[in-house]
Amino acid sequence: MKARTRVLIGGALVVGTVGYLMASGIKDTGVYFLTPSELAGRVTADPSFYNVGVKMGARVVHGSIQRDVASQTISFKVTDGTQNYPVVYRGLAPDTFTDDVDVVVEGRLMPDGTFHATTLLAKCGSKYESVPKA
Amino acid sequence: MTTLGQISLWLALLVAAWGTVTGVLGAKRGRPELIQSARRATYALLGLLAVAAASLIVALVRHDFNVAYVAEKTSRNLPTVYTIAAFYSGQEGSLLFWAFVLSIFAAAAQWLTPRRYEPLMPHVAAVTSAITGFFVAVMVFAANPFTRLPFTPADGSGMNPQLQNPGMVIHPPMLYLGYISIAIPFAFAVAALISRRLDTGWLHAIRRWTLLSWTFLSIGITLGMWWAYVELGWGGYWAWDPVENASFLPWLTMTAFLHSVMIQEKRGMLKKWNMTLITLSFMLSVFGTFITRSGIISSVHSFAESNVGYFFLGFLILTAALVGWLLWSRLPELKTEAALESALSREASFYFNNLVLVGIAFSVFWGTMFPILSEAVRGQKITVGPPFFNLVNIPLGLLLLALTGIGPLIAWRKASARNLQRQFLVPAGAMLVMAAFLLAIRYSDFYAGVAASLAAFVVATIVQEFWRGTTARHRLHGENYVLAFARLVGRNRRRYGGYVVHLGIVTYFVAFSGLAFKREMEASLKPGQSTSMRSPYGHTYTFTHVGVSQYERLNRFVTAASVEVSRDGKPLGVMSAEKRQYVDSFNRPQFNPSTEAAIRSDMREDLYVVFAGSVAGTEEAVYKFTINPLVWWVWYGGVILVLGGIIVMWPGTGPTKASLRRALPGYAVTLASGTGDDA
Questions:
Q1: Which residues in B lie closer than 8 A to residue A14 (C-beta atoms)?
Q2: Helix B201-231 and helix B242-267: axis angle, to 10°?
Q3: Do B383 and A72 touch (CB under 8 A)?
Q4: Do B348 and A3 touch (CB under 8 A)?
Q5: Do residues B607 and B463 lie in contact, with contact meaning Cβ atoms separated by under 8 Å?
Q6: Residues 6 or more apart in contact with residue B82 via CB below 8 angstroms
Q7: Per the CB < 8 Å rule, is B160 touching A124?
Q8: Which of B161, B363, B383 sits opposite A31 (nearest CB)?
């Protein structure tokens, strides 16, 4: 019985560690995933929501992409049909990033209404559906 | 040809239903003609699906653009190898691939399984037929690869350039072979449950299958990392992307299963757990296929685009319910035969290993599904990314690494102080020496340091085992060391092959710890200008921009930017990174431009150069330079791991087979009586 108890305590420790790591992981690294309209609703309700790290999923407005290669800055507008936001991103855009694609940008909405993105993910166009990868 | 394919699919659906019914009924009523019919249904499925697969390949190779799948996935100027690979690059084709490969495995299982497991086989045929039938039904009712268009386009839309890579030709099939072959051990598990033959017989029957699927999964995942690394151009090989995670999940539960079956074989413990693990592995492999194909998680689109997702969801729920009910009704027969005797024992260490592996799997699943779960429960979509997965999995992974060293050496039942001292004195010493060395050179990353120290520990346990085994043979049989070593491995393939697999895992861990020292830099350079960067080893790399050139290749326009690279002033040569614009046979651009990184690899570090674009059409180029330490070891860890897997699976004439032959009457008795224990 003693061995069994010891092992169960050990097991509880492992399970507890997994649970603790997961809970703290979600608390520390989880971010809201919002559409532009939802984000607009949030900041109207509570202005302290500016400058909070969020992810925003939206579509790139056709013809809005401006690339400044020298400074590696990309500015574009995103929309979900009702709400638009200008986005500024510094870095290399993925190959799939182009007009009218769905993007997920991670970053902060500034009080001036521009979204400063630190990561930019672009979904593949519907033309080649889900890309089997990894 | 597609008509033939269509007919084959419909016939396959009927035959699969027939095989399922006759398999179960035949075994239940003991009707040999039905059992025979179920077995023949398995072979018939193979024939029918082979015809369907051949039809699709012929349509692809003939550029029959009237077939929607061919028009969507390929074009006239696509190299033939990718045209054939298009078979499994899209949803419909990959479903056919799944069903076809499963029918090969199912037929092989019927053909190759020794006669002594005969009583399990009708149920195995029923289960594999049912699974094959499911995939055929999805094709026939929701995603038919042979659907025709109302018109014939002049050319197809071509293949996504990111898929036009040699790694992409072999990576998906390898991964699929892993996913699909899990269905065979799963079928044996269900067969054991239905037939109530719950001794270790079914575990012996699937030993090789389990390891085979595990090895395929490992190869598939590693190739996927390699593909992501050379093709996606972001400078890494693992991003905790949902699709990557989906392939990792069954790997984790299969790894747990491979270990916990040893406990059941030796001690008759963990029976329910093993049933649960193999079912979970099978469900996760189906889930992996589903997640890759439905885009339910990664896509911002809803999953309404295709109703294939509902088929999979229904199938998973049905599987869980069926196995759950079978387990529940067989609980008394799945009682453990032995009690745990000590917390310091092989059993306990494997139990911890299983907990950690399943814990990692659970956290990865949770993190992957969290956006959906949080939206369903709290109405808010919250996502977690790589920081979450790293935070949770690095400590758990290191715990697992420690257990990799402890598990194989600790005694069964109860480890004595003497056993612990004999086995772990030297490895613990090796770990301390490594830790002291790392402290002395002021190794800057805590986790990387722990990983390296534990790696020293595990490698020392493995070397010690090989050393002891070899010298013992040398002493006892007077063999020279080379012969003694070869015979040692050859005659205990499961054990020493297992150590080689562990060595591969350690290699992966060491390679992963290199990620802590990754360096990145972006620079905009005019021809002749240079920039330099210090590597984690203290070398200075200098990159001098040579120029930008443009040329045409087979099915693409290429813009290449070249840099001369030197290390500490010594020239290393020129690296050319490309931007490619793929075009169709009328030279119209297809897809977005794609990035082709230039990579220079050696054992210590990789230089990874990406050409981001040229400034306003001049020859001034923007580069991203990445120094990635130890990436080389990821690929070689994979090679070592596969080598170990092959050693374990190698069919041979050693004493293993002889002992099995001796055991044969015993198994026959076991199976006939259904109560024996051959542990």
A1: 352, 355-356, 359, 399
A2: 160
A3: no
A4: yes
A5: no
A6: B74, B159, B163, B164, B169
A7: yes
A8: B383
d(CA B309, CA B297): 11
Triad B671, B256, B672: Cα angle to 5°: 0
- Asked whether residue B419 carries a pLDDT value surpassing 90, the answer given is no
Tell whether the model's pLDDT for residue B448 goes beyond 90. yes
Single pTM value for the model: 0.89
Q: Which two tokens stand for residue B16?
A: 């699969």
Q: The dihedral of CA B603, B234, A96, B616: what is its sign?
A: negative
Residue range B334-357, pLDDT digits in tens = 888 888 888 888 888 999 999 999
Nearest CA in chain B to A6: B343
Q: In this complex, do B292 and A55 lie within 8 Å of one another by their Cβ atoms?
A: no
- Pairwise pLDDT comparison (B565 vs B586), residue with the higher score: B565
The residue among B553 and B56 whose pLDDT is bigger is B56
Which residues of chain A make contact with B620, given a CB cutoff of 8 A?
70
End-to-end CA distance of chain B: 53
B232 Cβ partners below 8 Å, 6+ apart?
A94, B162, B595
Question: What are the sequence ranges of the domains in chain A?
Answer: 1-30, 32-128
Cα angle at B41 between B667 and B279, to 5 degrees? 55
| Helix (H) or strand (E) run with residue B295 in it | none
Nearest residue on chain B to A123, alpha-carbon basis: B299
Interface of A with B in 34-93 (CB under 8 A): 34, 55, 57-58, 67, 69-70, 72, 91-92
- Which residue in A has a C-alpha nearest to residue B614's C-alpha? A69
Q: Which DSSP string do the residues of A23-78 spell out, in sequence order?
A: HHHHHHH-EEEE-HHHHHHHHHH-GGGTT-EEEEEEEEPTT--EEETTTTEEEEEE
Question: In the numeric block, which tokens belong to residue B565?
Answer: 């690279």
Residue position matching structure tokens 């180029």: B621
Q: Where do the domains of chain B lie, and which CATH numbers do they carry?
A: 1-159 (1.20.120), 165-334+375-385 (1.20.120), 518-633 (2.60.98)
Minimum CA–CA partner of A25 in chain B: B388
Q: In this model, does residue B658 exceed pLDDT 70?
A: no
* pLDDT top residue among B217 and A72: B217
Within 8 A by CB and 6+ apart from B188, the residues are B120, B124, B202, B205, B206, B209
CATH code of the region A32-128: 2.40.50.140
What's the CA dihedral at B338, B343, B345, B349 to 10 degrees?
Answer: 100
Binary contact (B300, A57; C-beta < 8 A): yes
What confidence tens digit (pLDDT) does each residue in B18-36 have? Answer: 999 999 999 999 899 999 9
Kindly tell me if the per-residue pLDDT of B574 is higher than 90: yes
Q: Is the ipTM of this complex over 0.95?
A: no
Phi, psi torsion values for A114, nearest 5 degrees:
-95, 150
